[in-house]
């Protein structure tokens, strides 16, 4: 852990970590439908201290961490593998292609990273109840981490969350409240809950340490790419907090003088859940009116981190794309059959974006290095690919029954 | 890689790795129902060479590997986390309790380790087709690894394998043949196939490198326990090959002079799939007549590695136990809610065995260190725990609707 302050990403005011909890007291409005969060706080570390102590040969990631080790949950999170796909890179006209497989976190998604850090913060604050709204993954993540620490998890999920995710969170022992309506309804309800009834709110972007937790995926990408900055990182975007977390990793590395450029961040959204894409393209924010995408983890009407995600994409020289559900499910199958990595539709959205970009006039150049961030495990939603594949009928167990 | 020979575990004859492929030519009978494999081969390394070169501070696991690096698939496999459960250890009267979470392999099970090594061997031999019979996990594992290498996977599965496992292997691009009947029928059919139509057979124990691949889980347990030998390792047992692989890890470490004792191996079976348990207890082998357990991954009539598993358990001073399906599903929920680790029923069987042992007169002593090997991801079969839990009904998204 390195000393840090919170800085408002809108007005720039700074606060000690015990002065504020969620948003900037000046800029953070209470949540209203159709208004992305304002006053989101960013942790600003003592970068010279990190610079002086960080050794790439023996990386001490704790230097980039905002909560003391002694509060960390016992569940190992992160340190997921990054696979190199040489055949697919060549086919797509890329120099190098990696897939960072964050579906291999304990609850099956990158969200474990955020839950880990917020649970640590709750332990530091002596708060025993952690509350979250989630499309499913953040909730499973919070439930898993709390199971390991003995903290209580209270979770609001849209009633249409995939069954596997609901089973997980109940089995982990969380209190699960399916909510009629959308993720945005669940989000608002969870804010009401912690405002009026207590507990620490782990909502994404709302609690500043969710971004810090997700940042660790970006730090690992840098290390696994050989302590080099990839040219582009493709990230599926719903709320925009995973993208924000990855951006924060490279900002921190840059501020600490460990890298001298940022990777281009390519945000990929489902075409029915495209609020951030339109915001980046036009500069004007409006909700995604009717997000119906099969990629449930990125199905969002009003992305909480719309402002931060847009800023990060533009600062990095990146861009956004949208893809259809058909492109997402096709990319899921392509990725599985080329790499052995089975990622959920939201994770495959990033790969669908790469396929689309490389087929366009904006394709990355032939020597470019790119990373696909696969955010969740495909086993979380086996119904999604089922619509595209068929399981062959059973045969008698004799060689003569086989046409192969 | 270190030079090795194959040695028959029955007659002790040795062979170079290019003289034999599957079983000892003298002792290995062709597969017949009701007869566990005989003539299973074991890789015997140049242990003095390993001893001279292995440094616990910078472990080079390649020294224990039977196939050259250059043939290894690009899919990262293994290096899964091992979580320490201090609260649960105290409750169970143990000094230390770890859970090795091998469900966090790319296809969601420990079987990736065996498929990885057999795919490497196929590459070395220039064979493009790999064939397997599987209850589901080995097949998904083979399909995943072959997706990463471009090799072809042909897979025979019992028609009742869980849907998530079938979806996975089809999506990975394998040729999947559901077979009417049991795992044992699929096993026999796959042997017929490679004998008469070609390809490399990856069947568990039948191909000697399946044991070697699974061995890596044991090596990692040793390292993650601080390069110490745990007092006991609990392993769910179906075919007995995972247990055999874990045993081989500690035998190799012992032969290389790196450890001076073996962990006690506790094999846990479902009570309807208990052939190895009865074999250990009585010394007389007979099939499990009707294995109906919900823990599909360990549902086996005639375990291929019955002889090897029994030998390993007895040599280690270990024992076997059986548990009911009710105990398995209860243990799955208990483990999830205490640790954040959601393992499939077969993985939870090991934990059910620990709970049962600690409640018995044979309980491990209060200072003992124990490891639970969680072999597969719970997301592979979310129907199993669904029978025991309920998802609460959805509520309106207003605070007043909550009784919490």
From TrEMBL, chains A, B:
Q: Which residues, renumbered to this chain, carry the PTM N6-(pyridoxal phosphate)lysine? A: 111
Cofactor(s), names only, from the UniProt record: pyridoxal 5'-phosphate
Top-level taxonomic group: Bacteria
User: What InterPro entries does the annotation carry?
Assistant: Ser/Thr_Dehydratase, Thr_synthase-like, TrpB-like_PALP, TrpB-like_PALP_sf
UniProt GO MF annotations: L-serine ammonia-lyase activity; threonine deaminase activity; threonine synthase activity
State any GO BP term from the record.
Answer: isoleucine biosynthetic process
Quote any Pfam family the record assigns: PALP
Task: Give UniProt keywords alphabetically.
Answer: Lyase, Pyridoxal phosphate
Q: What is this protein called?
A: Threonine synthase
Organism equals Mesoterricola sediminis
